[in-house]
């Protein structure tokens, strides 16, 4: 059982699912790289499913509060490292402004994060300014493209957590595109 510190707010549940985000030739090295970054053991993924589980003790709300205290430091986030390809991810869509990749802790059969490649002070939706209107619209349109690519355009949800009380865990604006099952209302 691993205990996570505040430096890992993205890993936010007691049963963390890591999707295989790399081809089989690079899988072993990528697993070692993720283990060295996050300091927890990862079970080898089975080739036919591409998923494995890691159990951890973690308080989602406490991590969100800690992440909020570090939000405006300007330090690179885990998403900045994914954008620069320092951390591997399973990219679903990419253009000059946004990157979309599979969430490592999926809450639905399809769970993709859509992020702007340039933060530009947009750490959360609550910090949006008129100058961000273009990228906000682009993020929504990219979410629709992701839904099309994933075959869920007939029914999907886009979620934005903004701030600690919404359990935002990474302060780089991001949209969750969820689908592939019947979604319930109210969501939370």
Automatic annotation (TrEMBL):
Active site: 174 (tele-amp-histidine intermediate)
Database matches in InterPro entries: Histidine_triad_CS, Histidine_triad_HIT, HIT-like, HIT-like_sf
Matches recorded under PROSITE patterns: HIT_1, HIT_2
Motif position, Histidine triad motif: 172-176
Domain spans labelled HIT: 78-188
CDD domains: PKCI_related
Record-linked Pfam families: HIT
GO molecular function: adenylylsulfatase activity
PANTHER family registered for this protein in UniProt: HISTIDINE TRIAD HIT PROTEIN
Protein name: Histidine triad (HIT) protein
Organism: Artemisia annua (Sweet wormwood)
